[in-house]
Write a structure and sequence with these properties.
The structure is a single chain. This protein is an all-beta fold and 272 residues long. Helix content is 0%, strand content 60%. The chain contains no helices and 20 strands. A 5-stranded mixed β-sheet has the order 4-11-10-6-7, with no helix packed on it. A 5-stranded mixed β-sheet has the order 13-20-19-15-16, with no helix packed on it. Strand 19 and strand 20 form a beta hairpin. It is rod-shaped.
Length: 272
C-alpha cells in the first residue's frame, strides 16, 4: 500500500452460464495503511544545552528510532544550525552516519562554533517512500558559545608607578592571561605611550614577547624616557578571531621621568 489511510479491497466471483445471466458474488475487506512512525533523540551525553568554547570541537549525536520494519525506503538524517543546512566540509563541520539495523539510524555531528552566543542545532530523521511524502521527525539542541576571556597584569616588579631618570633604561612587563583554551586564533600584545603605539626600534624602544603556553603571553618593554613628567604606558592583550571582533584587555602603568640634569659651568679668568 503506497498511501497512508483506509482502503477497501473487493474480490468478486463470477460463474458464467451459457444462454443465461452470470452468477456474481462479491466480498469486501478494508485495509488501513499507517504512516511509518519515527522518533528522534538528540544528545551530547544527554545534555541538550551545551556550553562550549569558541573554535574548539564539540559533538552532538542524533539517534533516529524507526518504529516500523520497512523495505524499499531511504532513511537519512539532516542537520541544521539556526535553520541553515550543514554540509560536511571535513573541518568545521564533520558528519558520521551509521545504520545499525532497520530500526536505528545514528548520526554524529562534530563542529566548531565560530561566533559567541546561543545557536540551535536541529537533526531531522527522514524516511523517503517512493511516490509518497517523506515522513520526518526532528529534535533540537541549544549550543551556547562563550566569548573568550582575557585578563592582563602590567608590572615592573609589581610597581605600577615608576620613577625613572631621563635617558636611562627602564622596563615594564605585561602578562596576558587567556582564560580559555583556544585553537586557530592569533594572540598578541601591543604597547602604547600616551596613546601612541610603540614600535621596536632596537634602541629607545625594545620589545620582547614570549608565549609560554596557550593560556599565557608575556611581553617586556625596555625603553628610555626622553621627556620629564608623567607618562602613561598601556599594554593591550588581544585575541584575533577569524570572522569576528577581536577580544582585548588592557592594563596601564604610570612612568614619571624626573627633570633633566642641570650643569653649572664656572668660568674663571686670571688677571695679571
Amino acid at each position: 500500500e503506497s498511501s497512508a489511510g483506509e482502503h477497501t479491497y473487493t474480490c468478486t466471483g463470477i460463474i458464467e452460464i451459457p444462454s443465461d445471466n452470470p452468477v456474481i458474488s462479491s466480498a469486501n475487506t478494508t485495509v488501513a495503511a499507517r504512516a511509518p512512525d519515527l522518533s528522534t533523540v538528540l544528545s551530547n551525553y544527554e545534555i541538550d544545552v551545551l556550553d562550549v568554547e569558541p573554535y574548539n570541537n564539540f559533538s552532538l549525536t542524533c539517534t533516529v528510532f524507526i518504529l516500523e520494519s520497512l523495505t524499499g525506503v531511504t532513511r537519512s538524517i539532516a542537520w541544521q544550525r539556526d535553520g541553515t543546512t550543514l554540509i560536511d566540509n571535513g573541518n568545521s563541520v564533520q558528519l558520521s552516519n551509521t545504520e545499525y539495523n532497520r530500526h536505528t539510524l545514528v548520526s554524529t555531528l562534530t563542529a566548531k562554533e565560530s561566533s559567541a552566543g546561543e545557536h540551535t542545532y536541529t537533526c531531522t530523521g527522514s524516511i523517503e517512500i517512493p511516490s509518497h511524502t517523506p515522513v520526518t521527525a526532528s529534535a533540537h539542541a541549544k549550543v551556547t558559545a562563550r566569548a573568550p576571556q582575557l585578563s592582563t597584569a602590567l608590572s615592573n616588579y609589581e610597581i605600577d608607578v615608576l620613577d625613572v631618570e631621563p635617558y636611562n633604561n627602564f622596563s615594564l612587563t605585561c602578562t596576558v592571561f587567556i582564560l580559555e583554551s583556544l585553537t586557530g586564533v592569533t594572540r598578541s600584545i601591543e604597547w602604547q605611550r600616551d596613546g601612541s603605539t610603540l614600535i621596536d626600534n632596537g634602541n629607545s624602544v625594545q620589545l620582547s614577547t614570549t608565549e609560554f603556553n596557550s593560556n599565557m603571553l608575556v611581553s617586556t618593554l625596555t625603553a628610555k624616557e626622553s621627556s620629564a613628567g608623567e607618562h602613561t604606558y598601556t599594554c593591550t592583550g588581544s585575541i584575533e578571531i577569524p570572522f569576528d571582533q577581536p577580544v582585548t584587555a588592557s592594563a596601564e602603568a604610570k612612568v614619571t621621568a624626573r627633570g633633566s640634569l642641570s650643569a653649572h659651568v664656572l668660568v674663571s679668568r686670571d688677571i695679571t
